[in-house]
Amino acid sequence: MEERKVALITGGTRGIGKAIAIKFAKQGYNLILNYVSDKTNIQELEDEFKQYNIETLFIKTDVSKFDDCENMVKQAIERFGTIDVLVNNAGITKDNLILRMSLEDFEKVIDINLKGTFNVTKNVVPYMMKKRNGKIVNLSSVVGIVGNAGQCNYSASKSGIIGFTKSIAKELASRNILANCVAPGFIDTDMTSILNDSIKENIYSQIPLKRMGSSEEVANLVYFLAGEENTYITGQVVNVDGGMVM
Ligand code: NAP
Asked: For the segment 222-232, what is each residue's pLDDT rounded down to a tens digit?
């Protein structure tokens, strides 16, 4: 029997990350799903993922902490022996105008979104290099491309992820490791549920498709870029945004 492929998805227990996890589970990948919150109900998630007949390892790790990420990757390798796909999805927002933004909120967003992407990738890449095979997909955002008032911390982190991804795509191509960014626009998750109706209406008016995207629509693109059919796309940023940014 062919060995199952293995995907590590950070922030894989809810929102876009969970939709990505389900997409890979349906394709028969074993999964390592990372999360950070004490509120996450692992028993419920374990029961839910049983239906896919794959193995799922849930690991609580703060991606902003390098040593914890090293430990998470070690545990993943001990359990599955390999990591074929890494999706750096974990991310937060702490929005404010620059005049009101605290240094703490600026640093927190950079530490989780950008440094977290480095922390996990740095620990996974040696195993992919040894295998001369791997796919990395990093979640950026359209605001990492065009900026957004009230999100200088978040936009900077998402722009940083684009530069990071292009650089590692160049470094790792010779080892057959492909790295790309997915840049979602306005997706219906907990992250956007905090916005009030008038802000949402205003955003819809800027989206040619006049609606939010779903987590599944993002997951389909991530799966394509990280799956076996992608053999020649690397270093790219692909938007999934209903035409919001062209
Ligand atoms: P979400 O619903 O708020 O979920 C965020 C995920 O990140 C959760 O699983 C959370 O874990 C995890 N996480 C947060 N801090 C972490 C940390 N320090 N260590 C490990 N995991 C951590 O967000 P989402 O909307 O699905 O967004 C997923 C990704 O897409 C993010 O990178 C986001 O920036 C990007 N994105 C989203 C949108 C959008 O419109 N929603 C648009 C563009 C880009 P817990 O469940 O344990 O808290």
From this structure: 999 999 999 99
